[in-house]
Amino acid sequence: MHERIHHRAFTDRLMSAEQAAEFIKPGMTVAMSGFTGAGYPKSVPGALAAQMERQHAAGKDFKINVLTGASTAPELDGVLAKAEGMNLRLPYMSDPELRRRINDGNMEYMDIHLSHVAQHAWFGFYGKIDVAIVEVVGVTAEGDLIPSSSVGNNKTWLEMADKIIIEVNSQQSAAMEGMHDIYYGTALPPHRKPIDLTTVRDRIGQQYMDVDVNKIVAVVETDAPDRLSPFAPVDETSEKIADHLLTFLDSEIRAGRLSEKLLPLQSGVGNIANAVLAGLSRGGYKGLTAYTEVIQDGMLELIKDGTIEFASATSFSLSSEGIEEFNRNVDHYRKRILLRAQEISNHPEIIRRLGCIALNGMIEADIYGNVNSTNVLGSHVMNGIGGSGDFARNGYLSVFMSPSTAKGGKISGIVPMASHVDHTEHDTMILITEQGLADLRGHSPKQRAQIVIDNCAHPEYRPMLQDYFDRACKESYGKHTPHLLGEALSWHERFRQTGDMRPAN
Ligand code: 0RQ
């Protein structure tokens, strides 16, 4: 028994998830491991949700604030949302139950750049952290923690929390030991020093996480896999988007702005980003690198076939097939993947230094290049900004991709004015839809608008956008970024009224 736990202080505190959950009281702020469905605690949140439901049935209030690395899974966000157990949740999330409650207005959600979370916690912006719940692969004889399939904010949670609950998950591959690089050099301003990371492979920290054993109140053994929904199969639309990107990258190489090894790739989450990665292996590249947040199935494929020779991230985000593939060829991947804390994987200083190529999905873009990644119709949050802002602002290139329409053509992905802005026109360089690619670099707003309309808009919406832009150029109050303010969001309002952005006639 306990073959994953080699330190007495930890075996002494072994208990059930139900007993561990007793340490969490109403109103507490609880920081948990987990990043894009990987490395989240599998059993204490469920036991906690059951206690919340019992309290609610007895007419008592039981809600907590939940901080994580990024999205988790039904066993964490899903159960706590169903139990109506959260006052506040931050940062990125993607659980449908949680999303519904946030959008119904029943709880608070704070959407924060992923690189900001740890430092904001240290700055005291989120108050005291009462309890941390962190999944690990095991505990060494020295009492160090072997990180799991994501690192996220775990180092920070372990350092800041008053009490710590550790989940030791025997389903997580023990072969991950040694694949992590945990940096302990971050300090608070004005005492910060440069971070000495100049290539994606650099190790700047240690392979284990430190923990103060005096703060550990419970250790729970679990045996459950990370649970991720499979990606949508690559379809014609995402293949076309990938082809436009490949053509563009080739032209950048020919123009001498990129070498054949490109620059470190960052790839966002979602079906489009996954499909684009799959497309890269068609591009004939070899020996590329990635400095990114998540290793998803598409990235694993690229590492397997040699397209990518080294990837730095903060988390895996694999479907069950992806997990099987990782476990089958773990020795190959061990030498080619490093997981870091998200404050390092997403650090603006490093992203700027390495010159990352940021590839992210979007909900909509407007004709000037402002990008909405988070809020449908300006109000209904989808997942959150995640790390897209960290990379888009600081990357060498920032690319946003989406089909030109959504919901069977009833919504245009290119609109007169974005109904919510996550990435401003100043951060967006390249927009891609299946229709084509808009290269916005070196162009003024009016020039950009014409390029976006000509290259990215769906043919059904292109004349409507052209008409709007032409009239705005004549009638707008100012002629620098022409807009007709009374009309700019009318497409969204029409969709709300009629279920279609296109006018009835
Ligand atoms: O909804 O499945 O209900 O039909 O949005 O859209 O086209 O499958 O695209 O999976 O790549 O996700 C922006 C959400 C795109 C993602 C977003 C609907 C569409 C569908 C998904 P249905 P697709 P993707 C680093 C990077 C922010 C975080 C980020 C995202 C669903 O890329 O969350 O980039 N990005 N992090 O129908 C209404 C529109 C729509 C729309 C799409 N205009 N209006 N619905 N949809 N466009 C990683 C991390 O940060 C962890």
UniProtKB/TrEMBL annotation:
Secretion signal, residue range per the UniProt entry: none
InterPro entries (alphabetical): AcetylCoA_hyd_C, AcetylCoA_hyd_C_sf, ActCoA_hydro, ActCoA_hydro_N, NagB/RpiA_transferase-like, Succinate_CoA_transferase
Domain Acetyl-CoA hydrolase/transferase N-terminal residue range list: 10-221
Residues in Acetyl-CoA hydrolase/transferase C-terminal domain copies: 322-468
Enzyme Commission number(s): 2.8.3.-
Enzyme class: transferase
Gene3D superfamilies cross-referenced by the UniProt entry: 4-hydroxybutyrate coenzyme like domains (3.30.750.70), Acetyl-CoA hydrolase/transferase C-terminal domain (3.40.1080.20), Glutaconate Coenzyme A-transferase (3.40.1080.10)
Keywords, comma-separated and alphabetical: Transferase
GO MF entries: transferase activity
Cross-referenced SUPFAM superfamilies: NagB/RpiA/CoA transferase-like
Pfam families associated with the record: AcetylCoA_hyd_C, AcetylCoA_hydro
Family: Belongs to the acetyl-CoA hydrolase/transferase family.
Protein name: Succinyl-CoA:coenzyme A transferase
Encoding gene (name): cat1
